[in-house]
């Protein structure tokens, strides 16, 4: 069997110094009363299989974003391993780490400001990923950039407009094109539609689904919105206080939640 | 200034009491030399140094002057140019200070010079092996346009993260159909560090590649030195299918008829159209003398 596109193995992230009282990630409280350290996630294990869309839901502070930051190599876990395409990349540092992030991972953040340079053109924001991976032919870069922008349904004649002049929905499309530029092993989506109005949300979700159907790219979607997860994900993890409390097929889990927290989450849907 | 110097320096060595050989104190010269050796070992890498107060303001060649004074030996023949011109006030002042405090000879003729301090030009003559060319640098870091924080750009240099400069070139190509650097076009040194060649025109940038002379770069205001040793690969950043291009001129130099040199506009007052002349005045003069 081919290795998982992305794997987190028993990942613990502690923000703060840590002390003997909170050394055991299983029993420590989220915030240590003695040293003030906060546990972002504790012995979290997950894998995203090739071609699969895995969803993570959970309330604010449940550890979703910490898990995603570890997956995107933005954060080095306190303990545990991170594997991309079967390669252990936990200890990669500096330039090597940056190259793995650029060549093998793609991420769409909740806010475009996190993922884009708003003063740079849409095309430039996509091109920079190719440039970072060593592309040096201008025509070749240009073709790829315009192809990617077309794929995310952005008009080619707007490619040379600074992103600051784009609407929120269009900016998310630019982020998506940028994330797809190097055909990553896994696409990370961090609340990709949270800041958008409902009709734009639906179009972006349709686009992500279409891209998944066409490319069978592995994806990890983090959201607090069960609707987004239901639309995109096949398999689902429910996180609560830094742990996975329930795991299963998306439809099954949402129609018959077992853990009290999941039940609360499902029943809280508007 | 000249009269004051005359007074201080009158009577040769005895009159120079109070001034050390080559103006700087020995510890300062040693520090600059140590930094230069390090810079030569790491071509294109910016090395910080303790830039001293100089008798020229920072930003007026103080970095280049410190290198010149730390490098010059009495056997040297020194030439100083400002945009190709030996006779500008700043060039004159620096040449005066160097020769008077060291006893080195002065020249304006490039072939006779062994140590040349320059502001924003490389002399048109090919420089021989052993010649030291000292550049004055206003902005040392080519990544300044990407991020203004030195702590960030140092990391980028260390990791070879030059996507930001390339993005700059990409955006230029999209908006202007060519690279917009008229000077300081960033170069890759020996396949490693990306370096600012100082604000020399593209005509000169192309001439750094594989040059036999030693290039030393000093940024006094930014307290940074860097260097390119002889016969080093220096490649201007350019896309594979959009080659680096040097300046093109409408015609030859109206004084010497040269077509291969870097030309600048001269005159143009009182409604007369400006004329193209060589930027390197010494080179232009010698060509005219030979033709006579």
Description:
The complex is a heterodimer of chains A (270) and B (292). Chain A has ten helices and ten strands. With 270 residues, chain A is α/β, with parallel strands linked by helices. In chain A, helix 5 (138-151) crosses helix 6 (168-180). The model of chain A has no long low-confidence stretch (mean pLDDT 93). Chain B has helices spanning 2-9, 12-15, 26-41, 62-71, 89-102, 150-159, 163-176, 202-205, 281-291; strands at 47-48, 77-82, 105-106, 115-119, 132-136, 187-189, 194-195, 214-219, 224-228, 234-236, 263-266, 275-278. Chain B has a seven-stranded mixed β-sheet with strand order 1-9-8-5-4-2-3. Chain B has a three-stranded antiparallel β-sheet with strand order 7-6-10, with no helix packed on it. Chain B has a two-stranded antiparallel sheet with strand order 11-12. In chain B, a hairpin with a 4-residue loop joins strand 6 and strand 7. The longest helix of chain B has 16 residues, at 26-41. The model of chain B has no long low-confidence stretch (mean pLDDT 92). Chain A binds chain B through residues 94-95, 98, 102, 120-121, 123-124, 127-128, 131-132, 136-141, 160, and chain B through 155, 158-161, 163-164, 166-167, 170-171, 173-175, 239-242.
